Amino acid sequence: MKQKIKFEKNIKEGILTIIEFSEVDPGVVMLLHEEEYSLEELIQASKEGVDSFLGLLRRRSFFPARDMAVKLFDGSVDFFKDAGAEKLVIEYNDIEAFPGEEAFVLDDDVELDALLEEDGDSKEDEMKEIDSEDDTPQFKPEDTSEHEN
């Protein structure tokens, strides 16, 4: 899932607003959550390091996973140092959490029906294979097991 986290400073009021967006469908981005923080506290936490920053950033309603939270810290250090910067957008794709994994991409020229074909046998051939089997029950009277057939 692709996400965009937007940091907005309101310097006059001393508030930092973090807005979380997510791509729900390709090309369709939706607002998920908005959270306000003390700008001065986050600037100080950013100076102290990743653990202080995450301790202040994470809340019950906004609790990013560790890899995403570290990316937010790394991407925002310069933003908090620059007093004039007002907005920052950090993009995150959860495929980044699994190094070595590739995102699944379906080529445009691939026919979906071709992907669904099994072995090329027609339905009639498959039905003949099923009907050719003997359906007679294999019950033997000398079977003395506890389970009845």
Provide key terms for this protein:
alpha+beta; 5 helices
Description:
The radius of gyration is 29 Å and the shape is elongated. Helix content is 32%, strand content 26%. The longest helix is centred in the middle third of the chain and has 16 residues. The protein contains 5 helices and 4 strands; from the N terminus they run E-E-E-H-H-H-E-H-H. It has 149 residues and is an alpha+beta fold. Strands 3-2-1-4 form a 4-stranded antiparallel β-sheet.
Task: Describe what is shown at a glance.
The chain has 149 residues and is of the alpha+beta class. The protein has helices spanning 39-48, 50-57, 66-81, 112-116, 123-131, and strands at 2-10, 15-25, 28-38, 87-93.
Q: What value does the Rg take, in angstroms?
A: 29 Å
The largest β sheet comes out as: 4 strands, antiparallel
Uncertain regions: pLDDT < 50 for 5+ in a row? none
Order of helices and strands: EEEHHHEHH
How many β-strand runs? 4
Instruction: Give the number of helices.
Output: 5
Helix content: 25-40%
* Basic shape: elongated
User: End-to-end span in angstroms?
Assistant: 51 Å
Task: Kindly report the average pLDDT value.
Answer: 83
Report the structural category.
alpha+beta
Set down the secondary structure blueprint.
Elements: E1 2-10, E2 15-25, E3 28-38, H1 39-48, H2 50-57, H3 66-81, E4 87-93, H4 112-116, H5 123-131
Helix pairs in contact: 1-2, 1-3, 2-3
